[in-house]
């Protein structure tokens, strides 16, 4: 028989039960015992699904209360020093992830960053020369015991030691010459202890994720891999796992490691298979990640059956079939959908991907019924839509990408028009999405609230947001986005070429879930997208109110793309639609337009050698979207929770008049990159963390602004939060913004 398994499964529940339970717990409305019971129920349901689908094992260790990297830090006893006084507990875990309310910077949340090139956020581990490791948080072992008690055959999954160190950063206060790789020697015995504990439980295989194998790592990190896997650490067999890219740059390292199998992402990089087969040790298994865990289109099962029947004949039982990566990045169950039209018959969510694996394995094993079902299953597969014609491509290519005047010339015009003070204050865009707003949206979609009543309700929410900002003294206002369910889904619902699921939720971090749209056709704009509410908001104030758009690369990256044309072509289609929207907004008197691109970094290939080709078209797409802006129209963009400092020349090439970025969690350390790269335009480094319930004090904000002013000329420095305020409540929002405005006003005199 052919072994099948998945690298991980979504943990949020089909109705987002984990999200709502976490938020109720944080509000004090749910006990810890009730939260634990809900987690146990979700795990049992996931394991049952995997067992029913014929998986060789249930995957254990993919469940996390906030994030699997943070769970690893807890397991290894690696808490940031500012949190080490707390007893190791679920609440201390949440304090690291969210900050501790009322504690100020002393117990600030740890940084978040994007999990490679996905929209999943992980909590960044922190290291210093004082870091000590020991097996403490025993969640993995407890969940293994839980699954074994239910009679399951178990495959634990754990983040490997080298990738764990790679994904971290030096803690504030660490010595400048401190190298976190120096910690590997003391980290490995803890991993050996974990493996031994698993072996004592009868575990045969452990999935050890080392996703940095898909990167172009330097010799030091290659040496670390050799050190970590130079000998077996227990009787457990190790399946070394990588995903999102090929591993060919690290072939010489991988084949020297003392492991028992290798997992390849053959959905992201099918071209690596033949090369790996040429050197795969005879005693290793090959886990072939052929079911795409990053997109929602059905697998082409007939083609896979043909290809892997031959490989099965070559490898025999050494061939395993698997998801390309964790199914964490997919919605849970297509069966819950009822409004996707013909596209439904070309889609597969996580539960359907389990079925795909089962059908594929049974067909390869010679089951004629499975082969018939597989052929019928894939009968609906067809080209999703036509590519752009040459004429359409030429039309897009003919539009100038450059603004007509330089930034310095535009800045003079804009300052004369806007008359903004030194250190102007603004927010990133969204304001709290209250229960009332959500209820009204649900009632409107269900036909329980008329369109007129719904619009009247939205107008009142927008009016209240404008009045609040004026009362607080903000300089540039936003309308608050009360009408928007999500910064991508809102646009997808109005643009041709998208479909939107009802329950296709995917976890982004903690309790935060997003519902990516699905791109099924060529994208076009047949009506204004944001004009009505932007005009209305601007009519309520004499201060400038920003028009708010999501950028082309972010809309692409946070959707499930079609696969018959390139990502570049899709981005250009979205950019052309946004270009028309920018023009309509400025013609209506909107003087400032923000085109958010938080995903521009995450959309990059994993390999640095491939970055420039991507950045060329990603930057071109943004500039195409902004190309209709007049010199007097101030274009803003926003980026957050990604290592954008690695691509500062490309960020500068966007030529946005104002760039707002997330920097408060790192205490402005991201701005150190500006010592070496002189960013030419205006910049607004975030001065407080919107993902934490903490209310920053005036002095804390002033300290961050002062720190930023040492690197950014005052004339080009803005003051704003890290990100949108959608997830905060109004009490937190007003308190934090009050302090932010006061800090800016007090510094205008002293810094000037």
SSE blueprint:
Elements: E1 3-5, H1 17-26, H2 32-52, E2 58-60, H3 68-75, H4 90-98, E3 112-114, E4 121-123, E5 126-127, H5 139-149, E6 154-159, H6 161-166, E7 169-170, H7 184-200, E8 205-209, H8 219-228, E9 237-241, H9 251-254, E10 261-265, H10 272-277, E11 285-291, H11 301-315, E12 319-323, H12 350-364, H13 368-377, H14 390-397, H15 407-418, H16 435-445, H17 451-472, H18 489-492, E13 496-499, E14 506-509, E15 512-514, E16 517-524, H19 531-539, E17 547-550, H20 552-557, E18 559-560, H21 567-587, E19 592-596, H22 611-626, E20 634-639, H23 648-653, E21 658-661, H24 673-676, E22 682-685, H25 698-709, H26 730-751
User: If you consult CATH, what is the topology of the largest domain?
Assistant: TIM Barrel
> What is the domain tally?
2
> What's the helical proportion of residues?
25-40%
Proportion of residues in extended strands:
5-15%
Report mean pLDDT, rounded to a whole number: 92
- The strand order across the widest sheet is 1-12-11-10-9-8-6-2
Tell me the distance between the termini. Answer: 74 Å
Shape: globular
Number of strands: 22
Largest sheet: 8 strands, parallel
